[in-house]
Amino acid sequence: MAKKPKNKRRDFLQLSTVTLGAVGTAAFIWPFLKSMSPAEDTLAAGSTEVDISAIEEGQSITIKWRGKPVFIKKRTKDEIDAAKMVQASDLRDPQDDADRVQKEEWLVLVGVCTHLGCVPLGQKVSDMKGEYDGWYCPCHGSHYDTSGRIRKGPAPKNLDVPPYTFLNDNTIKIG
Amino acid sequence: MDKNRKVHQFKNPVLNWIEFRLPIISYFKKEYGDYPMPKNCNYFWSFGALATITLVTMIVSGIFLAMNYTPHTDMAFDSVERIMRDVNYGWLMRYIHSNGAAFFFIIVYIHIVRAMYFGSYKYPRELNWILGVFIFLLMMATSFLGYTLPWGQMSYWGATVITNLFSAIPFIGEGLKTWLLGDYNVGNATLNRFFALHYVLPFVIFGVVGLHVAAVHVHGSNNPDGIDIKTNNDSVNFFPYMLIKDTVAMCAFGVAISAVIFFGPNLMAEVDNYIPADPLVTPAHIVPNWYLAPFYAILRAVPDKLGGVLLMFGAIVILFVLPWLDRSKVRSCNYRPIYKWFMMGFFVNFFALGYVGMLPAEGLYLLIARVGLLYYFGFFFIITPFVGWIEKPSKLPLSISDVYAKNIAPNIGGGEKGIPSPALQKDTNL
User: Fold this and answer.
1) Which domain holds residue B114?
2) CA–CA gap between residue A110 and residue A159 (Å, rounded)
3) How distant, in Å, are the alpha carbons of B298, B305, B376, B406 from that of B368?
4) Does pTM surpass 0.90?
5) What is the pLDDT of residues A126-157, one digit of tens each?
6) Is 0.95 exceeded by the ipTM?
7) CB-closest option in B168, B182, B300 to A36
8) Which of B9, B36, B52, B331 has the most crowded Cβ, counting Cβ within 10 A?
9) What CATH class does A43-174 carry?
10) Both B175 and B213 in a single domain?
């Protein structure tokens, strides 16, 4: 019995040493892990102003914003109607067309497929536009409609809508 | 310190001096000189040595490439072109490195096929198999990282697609992807870290290969009949018999890889990777390296993002538990009349998956990929445990020398049953 207090003391010392060592190691690892996250200059959000006066109805342009392609499309009447007709509840990622645009003829999308990050086709007249006449991702066959919503294929989500504002009728500021 | 340690004595005093201080000479003599190899080992058993040689070749050619490569998005593509056009023998270094990677995978796949068919993964070599699967994983990671470095279209979009796999993980996926990339999309931060990791991982592989070899030397190599060495008559010394055999294999390998390096260096390359990376244009077909294509086929065969990613990684992880899925005590498929055919079917299926993995995922190709996916997992989860249970294996030979006397020795005029031919008798004067 005389031994017991001594053992307890040793156990305590062992446990506290190991705990302190583990916490210290974890604290030391953190800066290394954190150094792999986007750096400050990468985070400094950029914004891009785009002149949209030259875009004809039915035409779409691609601009670069934060290293990613952004699609700006002036939709035709038919395309707007097709997008509006869809019941949001039938969709994989339910969203009304009205929630995805500020002015219904202007559709602004991040042109990155939500499956594995390819750039979908559909910007050029000659491109494949997929079964819903919007965009088609050639990598793994995702089909997007005229509102950029996922309709068929492996992608889980609609094409992202970036933050943007109309500065005036002819200029959009993205970011 | 053990004062009574017996120090090996050699004729050469320099060797004795070293041996007394660091017993490395006797270690090599034991592990690579007198090491007993089953005498029935065929050329399939040379692929471990070939893989080691290829790993060293990759490390050496890679170090010399790194001396001229610039890991920056603005300069990477041009620096690779400069290696090809201006650096003395730069083209040779690069073609050795790029084709060496493909041959490394060919060799390792044959090595894995050997281990599976002849049951090398079974008791007592399970850990050896696990280390091997780990090496395979590291190789895939390293080759993916390396493929990004030339910064062509396939580099860029391959890196984009593969890193996006991580975004499929619920909740933490997007954050994890951003952390891995160091940016919101593949960019300079990504290229820099991929270069750093591509440089260091081969040395990690080298370390694990060391453990892999050390582990196989504990219980000795398996053999085509899958039975243990029982007497000295069953084995030959590694030196010189197996070393010479491995050297012959190495010569044949050298001819094959030289033929490709010098006469068809771009046979296994993708044309699109000679177009500089463009973040705004995705190539019509993103094609993985052929040696990763079977897993890519599995990814695309599933119409759900997370499901596809899980099954693709699952297809590799399942290999780790193969020793416990297989209930049969018989190692070699030569003595397993039913499982043998399923095993061959598995190899054919893997090949077919790789083939459709390089083609667009639609129509018949997609169907083949889905059937292939079912067989792949069915083989591990259903066929392997079930066949091991119902199958009646053929009668195993009594010993390796017994097989030898019956099947091989008569044809080359060897001795009687159980007595090895003089040519293969152990040379005890080594």
Assistant:
1) 42-281
2) 6
3) 10, 19, 12, 44
4) no
5) 888 889 999 998 888 889 999 999 998 888 89
6) no
7) B182
8) B331
9) mainly beta
10) yes
